[in-house]
């Protein structure tokens, strides 16, 4: 199937693993990804100690800052060409804020985001726009993220208004039709409106728009959450095909560990603005060591009745605390059944626990990280 003209070259080496880490304090050293033997090239994206604080203010005339919502708090990870990092966590844990930071819709409060070595948090104006051409977003809800008054052609071609160099005016219609074809839509439907498409087709339109500038990285913020289960698989399969075809790197965000399982090379479990545990799929799903990951996995639906009977559901008490006033020490301690006095006094670093071996030896931000088969 043809790609967007001049688009990224097809990936040649298939999936590779990426590293993801979050030091528990801003001063903790980042955990860089080890270059794999198959791909010694530096990561496409290097995120270090990334933080976004939204100030809380009081006063009508004279505004006084009374605190801050720590939406994303010292998150670090690397992403290599052709990889997928799945980011999972409950509502309000900072997933969308992280996504907006990565694509430049928000400026970080602290930390760096390096795209091919260049710190985009320090760029502005034309230089920033040029870099952000390479990092595009696919939004959660295909029903609200597409302007109902614009044709599909205008929606998919909209990025060319900001980056006219990507497709000269005379070529745009053809470029958009190619994109529609690439995502499995009929190029003849270029003049239709979003309401004339199903949910899955609308998300394909959003994906085509995300591909228009031939990015290297796509940040997909819950791209299938609003879709029926049967359609979810089609969209995930499409994203996988596009990844293989164009060597795209994905940050794929979801609420649910089962959604990212199939597509992710590595998974980062997020809680209250930080990564709690990171690892490859088998490490996270078969050898989870952080109590939060274990609780999330215990809630994942299991089709096999025998396996379902043998497992224990871990019910977490209470709600996620406010990111404006996170618990001291370990942020998960107010809901953790394993919490001890040390957990309130000392924030656990995201590091590989020295006592753990095999699949359990991966980064976990828990003082008492321990393997517990959840599914
Ligand atoms: N512009 C803002 N101003 C103040 N607080 C904000 C802002 N945007 C997000 N927040 C807060 O930051 C925290 C993280 O929000 P975010 O939308 O990133 O979470 P999320 O993980 O994407 O949640 P969901 O799964 O519901 O989409 C929340 O407490 C939210 O209320
Ligand atoms: S550090 Fe303590 S509170 Fe935090 S996850 Fe581990 S056991 Fe639970
Ligand atoms: Mg969100």
Automatic annotation (TrEMBL):
Region (Disordered): 1-42
InterPro entries: AAA+_ATPase, ABC_transp_ATP-bind, ABC_transporter-like_ATP-bd, ABC_transporter-like_CS, Oligopep_ABC_C, P-loop_NTPase
Residue ranges constituting the ABC transporter domain according to the UniProt record: 45-297
Source domain of life: Bacteria
Keyword Iron set for record: no
Keywords associated with the record: ATP-binding, Nucleotide-binding, Transport
GO molecular function, one term: ATP binding
Gene3D superfamilies, A to Z: P-loop containing nucleotide triphosphate hydrolases
One GO biological process term: transmembrane transport
SUPFAM superfamilies referenced in this protein's UniProt entry, alphabetically: P-loop containing nucleoside triphosphate hydrolases (SSF52540)
Keyword Protease applies: no
Signal peptide positions on this chain: none
Family, as annotated: Belongs to the ABC transporter superfamily.
Database matches in PANTHER family: D,D-DIPEPTIDE TRANSPORT ATP-BINDING PROTEIN DDPF-RELATED, TRANSPORT ATP-BINDING PROTEIN
Protein name: Dipeptide ABC transporter ATP-binding protein
Lineage, broadest ranks: Bacteria, Bacillati, Actinomycetota, Actinomycetes, Kitasatosporales
